[in-house]
C-alpha cells in the first residue's frame, strides 16, 4: 500500500476546500464527490509539490518556496479571487491577478513575521536533510558524522542552549562521502520522552544554516534550516 507523505492531509483538505470554492459551490456537487478528490489529492499533490519545488529551485534567481509559503500563497490567491465575486455576476478579478497576489504574499509576509517576532517562522524555515547523515559516537564527548548524499550539506550540531533564531555554533559544510567531528559536551542525542533536551544533528543545503526549534508539542526539538543571510 502506498504511504502518505508529510503534509498529505493538509494538501487533501486544501484541495477539497478550493474545489468547493472555485467549482463545487456553483455546480452544487453532492458531498460524496469530495471524498475521492481528497484521497487522490493526499497521494498526488505532495510529490507534485516536491517536483515543482525542484524546478523552482533550479531557477537561481527565484526565492525558495516551502510548503507553508505555498499554503499562504494558495489561500491568499483564492481569497483575492473570491472576495469580490458576486453570484450570477461576471468574474471581477482575473485569475492571473489572484496568482500574482498569492506569490507576492508568500514572499513578502514571512520576512515581516520574522522581523516582528525576532525568530524565524515556519514559512521561512527550510527542511532538515537529516537522511543524509550517519553518525558514530566517539569516547562519549564527540561524534563522527558522515554525509551519504550526492551533494554537499551544511551539518550542524545544536546543543541544549541553542535554538532558532541562532544557528548551531558547531557547523561544517561536508562534501559527499566526507566526515566531520562534532563535540557533544557530554550530552546525549535529543529524544522524546527519554531525553528531550539533548543535542540535535541538522543537515541543510548550503547556504542555509543549521538550527533547531521546539516541536509543535513543546517537548523536544526538531532540526530546522534557517534561510541564508
Which class best fits the helix and strand makeup?
A: alpha+beta
How many strands, what sense, and barrel or not for the largest sheet? 3 strands, antiparallel
The geometry reads as elongated
* Cα distance spanning the termini: 42 Å
User: What's the Cα radius of gyration?
Assistant: 21 Å
* Widest sheet: strand ordering: 1-2-5
- How confident overall, as mean pLDDT? 84
Total helices: the number is: 4
Q: Outline the low-pLDDT stretches.
A: none
Got a strand count? 8
Strand content: 15-25%
How helix-rich are the residues, as a percent range? 25-40%
- Please provide the ordered H/E string of secondary-structure elements: HHHHEEEEEEEE
List keywords for this structure.
single chain; 229 residues; alpha+beta; 3-stranded antiparallel beta sheet; 4 helices; 8 strands
Element layout with pairings:
Elements: H1 8-27, H2 34-58, H3 67-83, H4 95-117, E1 133-138, E2 142-147, E3 153-158, E4 170-174, E5 179-183, E6 200-204, E7 209-214, E8 221-226
Antiparallel strand pairs: 1-2, 2-5, 3-4, 3-6, 7-8
What is the gist of this entry?
Helices cover 37% and strands 20% of the residues. It has helices spanning 8-27, 34-58, 67-83, 95-117, and strands at residues 133-138, 142-147, 153-158, 170-174, 179-183, 200-204, 209-214, 221-226. The strands form three sheets. Strands 1-2-5 form a three-stranded antiparallel β-sheet, with no helix packed on it.
Amino acid at each position: 500500500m502506498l504511504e502518505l507523505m508529510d503534509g498529505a492531509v493538509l494538501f487533501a483538505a486544501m484541495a477539497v476546500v478550493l474545489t468547493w470554492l472555485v467549482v463545487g459551490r456553483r455546480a452544487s456537487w453532492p458531498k460524496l464527490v469530495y471524498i475521492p478528490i481528497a484521497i487522490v489529492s493526499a497521494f498526488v499533490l505532495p510529490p507534485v509539490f516536491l517536483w515543482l519545488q525542484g524546478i523552482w529551485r533550479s531557477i537561481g534567481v527565484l526565492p525558495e518556496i516551502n510548503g507553508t509559503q505555498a499554503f499562504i500563497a494558495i489561500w491568499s490567491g483564492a481569497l483575492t479571487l473570491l472576495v469580490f465575486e458576486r453570484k450570477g455576476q461576471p468574474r471581477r478579478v482575473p485569475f492571473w491577478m489572484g496568482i500574482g497576489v498569492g506569490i507576492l504574499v508568500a514572499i513578502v509576509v514571512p520576512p515581516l513575521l520574522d522581523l516582528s517576532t525576532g525568530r524565524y517562522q515556519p514559512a521561512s524555515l527550510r527542511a532538515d536533510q537529516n537522511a543524509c547523515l550517519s553518525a558514530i559516537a566517539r569516547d562519549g564527548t564527540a561524534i563522527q558524522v558522515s554525509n551519504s548524499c550526492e551533494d554537499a550539506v551544511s551539518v550542524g550540531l545544536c546543543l541544549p542552549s541553542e535554538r532558532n533564531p541562532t544557528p548551531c555554533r558547531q557547523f561544517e559544510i561536508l562534501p559527499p562521502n566526507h566526515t566531520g567531528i562534532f563535540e557533544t559536551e557530554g550530552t546525549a542525542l535529543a529524544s522524546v520522552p527519554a531525553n528531550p533536551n539533548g543535542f540535535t544533528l541538522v543537515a541543510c543545503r548550503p547556504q542555509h544554516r543549521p538550527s533547531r526549534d521546539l516541536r509543535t508539542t513543546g517537548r523536544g526539538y526538531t532540526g530546522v534550516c534557517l534561510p541564508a543571510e
